[in-house]
Amino acid sequence: MMKRFLLRLLFYVCVYVILHVVVVCAVGPFVTFYRPESGGHLFSRTKEIPNYKNPDVLFLGSSHAYRGFDPRVFDQAGIASFNLGSSSQTPMQTEVLLKKYLDEIQPKFIVFDVFPIVFQLDGIESTADLISCDHIDSSICKMAFKSGNVKVINTLIYGLYQEYVRDIRNTLNERIIIDGDQYVPGGYVERLTDSTLLDNGSIKVRTINILPEQLSAFGRCIQMIQDRGIPFLLVQAPLPQRTYHNLLNYNEFKNTIATFGNYIDFNEVLQLDDSCFYDEDHLNQKGVELYNHCLIEEFIRKVHK
What we know:
The chain is of the alpha/beta class. The protein has a domain at 41-123 and 178-303: 3-Layer(aba) Sandwich (Rossmann fold), CATH 3.40.50.1110. Helix content is 49%, strand content 11%. The chain contains 14 helices and ten strands. It has helices at 2-26, 28-31, 42-48, 63-66, 71-76, 91-105, 124-133, 138-147, 150-164, 168-171, 212-227, 241-244, 250-258, 285-303, and strands at residues 57-60, 81-83, 110-113, 177-178, 181-184, 188-191, 206-207, 232-236, 247-248, 263-265.
C-alpha cells in the first residue's frame, strides 16, 4: 500500500515538474526576471571575454565598476583593460564570475570596486542578470537554487530553454544603445545624456549592514586572487558628497574592507561636485574621466614604482 502511494506521489511530482517547466518556457517573460538585453550590457560583455586575454587590469564590481571605469581612458595611458562588472553585483556573483573567467582572462592586476551597499543585498537582481546574460553552467545553477527565490528558479528554467533550445547566445546581437546607455568594447557602459545630478531634496540616510554571507564570499574572492599571485587594489568610487556623508557607520565598513588588502576611498582623494554625477550614486562621463585619470596615477605609482 505504502509502495503504491509513493509511486503515485512520485508520478504526480514528475507531472507537476514537467508541466511547470512547460508553462515557464511558454510564458517566460511574464513569470521570470529574464532580460538578456539589460541596461548593464552583461550579455555583450561576457561574449567579449575571449577577445581580452591577459589585460593589464581587470575591473570587478557592481554598476560603479561597469559605469565607472572607461577602457578608452586607460588605453590612452597605454593600459589595456577589461571590465567584468555587472548590475548590483554582490561578492557572491563576483565569486561565480571569477571561478568561471579568472583563469581565462589572466589579468596582470585587478581593481575591485567595493560599493558598501552591495554587501547588504541578497543578490537576487545580480543572480537573475547572470542567468539572463551569461552562459549558464553548474555554478550559475547552484547559485540560483541557493537563492531560494521561486522567480529566480523560474528565470533559470527559462534561461536554460533560451540558451540550449533557442540558442540565444548565438542568435541575439544585443543593441549597443539601450535607454540612453551605450556599450563600449571592453565592458564599459557610457551614459549618453549629458545629465548632472539635480538637487531634488535630501538624500536618504543609509546604514551599512554587511551580510555575513557576502563578507565570506568577498573573502573567498580575495583568496582566489591571491592564490594566483595577482596584485589587486580595492577602491570606493567617488560619490556625491551628500550621499557619501549619509552613509552611516561608513568608517566601520572601511576598516573591515581594509583588512583584506590595499584599499583606497577615492572620496578622500577627489571631492567632486554634483556636475560630475548623473544620479545620487553614479558618475557621468565628466566624473568618470576625472576619476580614471586619478586612478591611473595610483596604478602607475603602485605597479610601476
